[in-house]
Each structure stands twice: as C-alpha cells, then as structure tokens.
From TrEMBL:
Lineage of source species: Eukaryota, Metazoa, Chordata, Craniata, Vertebrata
Record-given protein name: Protein arginine N-methyltransferase
Function: Arginine methyltransferase that can both catalyze the formation of omega-N monomethylarginine (MMA) and symmetrical dimethylarginine (sDMA), with a preference for the formation of MMA. Specifically mediates the symmetrical dimethylation of arginine residues in the small nuclear ribonucleoproteins Sm D1 (SNRPD1) and Sm D3 (SNRPD3); such methylation being required for the assembly and biogenesis of snRNP core particles. Specifically mediates the symmetric dimethylation of histone H4 'Arg-3' to form H4R3me2s.
EC number from the UniProt entry: 2.1.1.321
Family, per entry: Belongs to the class I-like SAM-binding methyltransferase superfamily. Protein arginine N-methyltransferase family. PRMT7 subfamily.
Every Protein arginine N-methyltransferase domain range: 176-346, 506-679
Protein encoded by which gene: prmt7
InterPro entries from the UniProt entry: Arg_MeTrfase (IPR025799), MeTrfase_PRMT7 (IPR014644), PRMT_dom (IPR055135), SAM-dependent_MTases_sf (IPR029063)
Length: 680
C-alpha cells in the first residue's frame, strides 16, 4: 500500500504530492518526534514519579485496589512508575500504533506485561466492561496530554470523556491541577512578529493600510523558547497573573470559558504582547510542582530544566493600546477545547453586551497577510538592518529606466523598487501579497502566471533589467530550498537584458560544526530512564532516522537553541545566479579542523545571499563567532542541522576534523550531504 506525502520541490517552488510507502508517515513522525526529549526531561519524570507515588499511597490508605488509567502512555514509563509505586493494574492508552508497539516491548522488557495492558486506541474510543478494553473503571488517572499551550493536543475533551466514562467518581489524578500564568508586556521585538511596521524608503514613510494595521491577526499561539528572549527585550506592564486553573481530579468541561485577572499597571507603555506558561501541581497540596517558567524566572537561571516538548507561549493582543502607570486593567483569557486567546480592557471602560461579546470572540485575520506570513516572516520583513541592506543594494543597481521583476513570496521588494524610481515593476501574483500596501496595486503589475510561462508580450515587449528576490518562498523547509530563485532565473533567461542585474547575484552554503547546549537531547538515545529500560524506543527512533530522508538535515531556528562553534564557519558551495542552473551535478568535498574543546553533536548549515559584490544578507550567523565559540543567529529563518549518530569528543588541537561532501542535484533542486569525523 502507498501513501501520498506533501514535499517541497525546490525546482518548482511548489508542494508536490509524492507517493511513498505506507510506512513513510510513521517513520517521519517518529524521527521528528519529541519522545527522546521527554525521556531526557528528568525534572518532568521526577515530578511525575513523586506525584504517582503520593496518589497510589492515598488510594491504598483508603483500602482500595489501585487501578490506573494512563492516557497518552507513550513508552509506558508512567505506567511502570505506577506499578513500581504499588499499583495493582494499569490500562495504558496510546493512539499512535508504532508507539503502542514500542510500549508493549518496553513493558515486556521490564517485566510488567502481566499488569500493564496497552490499548492502541484514542481514549475516547476505549470501552469499559466484561467485554471492554477495561474490566473496570480506574481510580487513578495519569495523563501526559499537554502541549506548550496546555490544551492544544485535546487535553480537555480527553479529560471530559474520561471522567464521564473511564474513571471512578472522586478519582485521584496525576497531575492533579494545571495553572495558566500570563504577563502583559511591551516588546518591540515580539510585536514585530505580529504586525507590519512602517518603513522609510526613498525619503517617504510607507505605512501599511488600515486593513493590515487594524487587523486582529491570527489567533494561533506563537510557541518559543522564551528563555532565549532576554528580559531586556520587553517591559512588563503588569504582574505575573494566575489566569485560571483546571482540577483534573474532577469532571472537566471542554466548553468555551473566559477568565479575567484585574491588576494595576506597574509601568506606562504600549500593551502589545502576553507572555504565558503553565505549572503542573502533581498533588492536591501543590507541594510537587513542575513549572514551564522560562529560565529568567528562576533565582539561578542555569538551574532551570530544559525541555523542547513544552516551551512557553506568546500571544499578541488584537490591537496594541497605550496604558498608564497606575491604570486599573482587566486581562481576559478565553479558551475553547483546543486554544487560548487574550484581550485587554481598562476597568474604567464601560462595555455593552455586544462589546463584551467582541472581546471574547476569537481573533480572526481579515487582511490575508496573517494567513500567508508566518510569525518569523513578519519579524524578517520588520528587520530594519536587513531592509536597509536590500534598499542599499537596489539603490546601487536601479536606474530610472529599470524594468524590475520580483521573484519571492510576499516580498516588499516591488514596493521598494517602485519608490526608488524604477520605470516598471512586475511581480508574479501568486508570489505577491498585494494587500500589504495600498499603493502596491497601482505601482506594480501583477503577472497571473508562473515564471516558466512568462513571454515577452506579457511584459509589454520589454526586457527585464533587474531580476530581484530575497529570496524567500513559503514552501521552503531547508535553507537551500530557496534555490528555487535560481530555477526561476533560468526559466526567465530569454527575457533578461544582456547586462541584466540579478539580485542576489549569488548564494553560498555555509557550515559550522557545533556543540549544542541542549538540542542534542532530541536525538540522543536514552537507554535507561528513571531506572527503566527503554532501549526498544531508542531502536525504533534509530530505525526511523535510517529510513529515507529522515536521516538528512532537519530545520531548526538556532537562535532558540544555543550552541558553540567547534570549527570555523566555512563556505562550502557557491551558486552563481548570474548563470543558469547547470545541467550537471555540482560536488564539493573538504574538511574543517576542530579547533575548540567540546562535544561535537553535528553541523549547522545556512545560506548567505550576496546581493551585490559588497552587500551580503545572512540567513544564519549574523556576527563573528566569539573566541569561546559562541554564535549569534538570525531570528527569522530556520537553519539546517545535521546530527551525528554519536557525539565526538573534540580536544580542540586541530588534529581531528569534520569532513564534508556536498552534491547539488539540478534535476532535484536538492543537496545531498554526508559528514564524518577524521582523527589525526
């Protein structure tokens, strides 16, 4: 049996549906999962173990037989903890078939198969009774159904169903309770990810039209490693508020709810962003707490546990508004069964029923931009230094008689070219977000076709003098997928003037071998977790990593994941956009000495775009590597990461080196790569 999977095609810029074996989705899901990250999260595991022991002890103290329901069991770890703590029997529910099979192997390997029943179903399909999946209802409910937003994986409907059908009234629950916290802040950095900002071009200040500036935006959460956002990047306007709690030991509702917190503004500023995270109380007394707070909330930030499966949330208010120190404010959070959203009002403000209803309604994008641009893309377009680089490049190549054609998704380059005096500016409509500036429809001609379909008649019999791109394409997953620009340039070769300017004129693929502070955990085998053998899980993940493209580089925003460079940054391949895509593959081999002491986990890869001979825009490192190897990464693009199967201990004397081999396949638009460590 075959399955169709969507995959970015760098040669066409499209999402192609490719036929793969029926195992493909499974292997991709496992290879890219966070199972290893969760198993390496000792703080999470320890708090769950303590909570489970306490819950089992409470039930035993009542003289009852301890029956566990473990929803979302994963590896079966929590069920094994429960039996070790004295539980009599566990029903462990896991909907993902490969994971359920791995859990079965793990419980057998640890000698618990006679007291743990793995149920490969969604919990809402589980039945209770003599012929059911469960012989009796459970009196302890253990779950790990949470995501960064707490409820985004359907925790509320699952709890609601479990209390109605699968557990006894008055059951114990681990975790016992969750509390959501929020803090109102002003942050130019974070707000730049929500709304397009004015930009100075050619002596004029371009302001987005009201349809964009007043749009409430998309309601989806922005989940990030908030520990990597310096407190200097935002100003708290109010205290940290406990917005609401959910008691998992009692019936839970998945219906719409709203909760408000009143406070006095502690600073004056622009209310723009809500920072949020949650805590889990593993016991009723709240003495066993697992918190998702960012590291800068800890007295000793270095002691904060690292986790990638649960991060922190950033919510953008529908409209920014000024607040004054001492003003009484009301912050409201609403949630349905899967998502949260926030609104803010002054307590002195009288609201009608319709206004209250509007405040509680889910934000909805009405300008199209928030549906087409990601949060990082907004940040990229609002990056003033980056914008100035492109403006400087356009000024240096543009002339009054320039005929400019833009090839990039949702780019502002056509607006810039027009404001800088180009005679004619064209853009492919499917690559253009013409709603961003009201003047764009008037100054830019939109082409309703693909680059390979364009003829000279379509551009009024003229030739293109400036072909420009950032390049950025929404279908790109890895840095080199933006080479679609090169394919467009090749398709348009017959329409270019003999001396046409290509901007960027070239791109370079860079690499650096790195030691990750924490990201290595997502790929590291666990072996033994809290005393339990979970090697079947390690073997399953490795098998999936060895399957097809799962063993290749993967995208990560490295500004969220600190690392140290153990080699110099090295340019490995250059792609000359002034020439057409070659028909034959391009191969490069070489090696880079390991010059710093550390544990080499893999290689970071990114593209640098040479806009002109002296202006470069990096989609990776944005500054020199420090003497200690510290790296600063651009915030708006993902870099490629190639993980080694096993880390290499570098002595830093340069005798060991990372060898690399790259092959660019023109027919595929992709780069095949291989790395190894050579010791001297």
């Amino acid at each position: 049996m075959k399955t169709f999977c969507g995959r970015a095609n760098p040669t066409t810029g499209a999402l192609d549906w490719v036929e793969e074996s029926e195992e493909y989705d499974y292997h991709q899901e496992i290879a890219r999962s966070c199972y290893a990250d969760m198993l390496h999260d000792h703080d999470r595991n320890e708090k769950y173990y303590l909570g489970i022991r306490a819950a089992v002890a409470r039930v035993k103290a009542r003289g009852e037989k301890v029956i566990i329901l473990d929803i979302g069991t994963g590896t079966g770890l929590l069920s094994m903890m429960a039996l070790t703590a004295g539980a009599d029997f566990c029903y462990a529910v896991e909907v993902f078939k490969p994971m359920a099979e791995a859990a079965q192997c793990i419980v057998e390997k640890n000698g618990f198969s006679d007291r743990i029943k793995i149920i490969n179903k969604h919990s809402t399909d589980v039945t209770v009774g003599p012929d059911g999946d469960m012989q009796m209802k459970a009196n302890i409910l253990i779950t790990e159904l949470f995501d960064t937003e707490l409820i985004g994986e359907g925790a509320l409907p699952s709890y609601e169903h479990a209390h109605q059908n699968l557990v006894q009234e008055g059951c114990e629950a681990v975790p016992h309770r969750a509390t959501v916290y929020a803090q109102l802040v002003e942050s130019e950095l974070l707000w730049s990810w929500a709304q397009l900002q004015p930009v100075e071009v050619g002596g004029a200040r371009l302001v987005p039209p009201p349809a964009v500036g007043h749009c409430a935006g998309a309601h989806s959460v922005c989940d990030i490693q908030l520990s990597q956002v310096s407190p200097k990047s935002f100003t708290p306007l109010g205290p940290l508020c406990a917005m609401f709690s959910v008691d998992f030991s009692r019936p839970v509702s998945s219906a719409f709810q709203s909760h408000s917190s009143q406070f006095v503004a502690q600073s004056s500023g622009q209310a723009q962003v809500v920072l949020s995270w949650w805590d889990l109380d593993m016991d009723p007394s709240g003495s066993i707490v697992c918190t998702m707070a960012p590291s800068w909330k800890y007295p000793q930030p270095k002691m904060a546990p690292w986790r990638d499966h649960w991060m922190q949330s950033v919510y953008f208010l529908p409209v920014e508004r000024g607040v004054t120190e001492g003003e009484e404010l009301n912050l409201t959070v609403c949630h349905d069964d899967y998502s949260l959203w926030y609104s803010l009002q002054s307590r002195s403000q009288q609201t009608t029923d319709s206004q209250t209803e509007a405040l509680h309604s889910r934000p909805c994008c009405t300008c199209q931009a928030h549906l087409l641009w990601t949060r990082p893309r907004f940040g990229e377009l609002n990056d003033r230094l980056r914008t100035e680089s492109y403006l400087s490049a356009l000024r240096s190549v543009g002339q009054e008689d320039s005929v400019c054609l833009s090839v990039s998704d949702g780019s502002l380059l056509p607006v810039f070219a027009h404001r800088l005096g180009a005679k004619k500016v064209l853009c492919f409509e499917h690559l253009c977000i013409h709603c961003t500036f009201s003047t764009l429809r008037l100054c830019v001609e939109l082409l309703e076709m693909r680059p390979d379909q364009l003829t000279r008649n379509d551009i009024g019999g003229e030739q293109i003098s400036v072909l420009m791109g950032e390049p950025y394409f929404s279908t790109s997953l890895l840095p080199w997928h933006s080479l679609f620009f090169w394919y467009c340039r090749t398709a348009l070769a017959g329409l270019l003037q003999p001396n046409a300017t290509i901007l960027p004129c070239s791109a370079t693929l860079h690499m650096v071998a790195v030691e990750f502070e924490d990201l290595w955990r997502i790929r590291a085998p666990c072996g033994t977790c809290e005393g339990f053998d979970v090697t079947p899980m390690d073997e399953m993940v490795q098998q999936s990593l060895d399957f097809h493209e799962s063993r290749e580089a993967e995208p990560h925003p490295l500004w969220e994941y600190p690392c140290r460079a153990l080699t110099q940054s090295t340019a490995t391949m250059t792609f000359d956009f002034t020439q057409c895509v070659p028909q034959q593959p391009i191969s490069r081999k070489g090696s880079v000495p390991l010059i710093r002491v550390g544990r080499c986990h893999g290689v970071a890869l990114w593209m640098e775009y040479h806009l002109t001979h002296d202006i470069t825009s990096s989609a990776g490192l944005i500054g020199p590597i420090s003497e200690q190897g510290d790296c600063e990464w651009v915030r708006h693009r993902k870099q490629g990461v190639y993980f080694f199967r096993s880390p290499w201990e570098s002595s830093g004397d340069g005798r060991a080196a990372v060898s690399y081999s790259f092959t660019f396949e023109p027919s595929l638009g992709d780069i095949k790569m291989d790395f190894s460590i050579e010791s001297g």
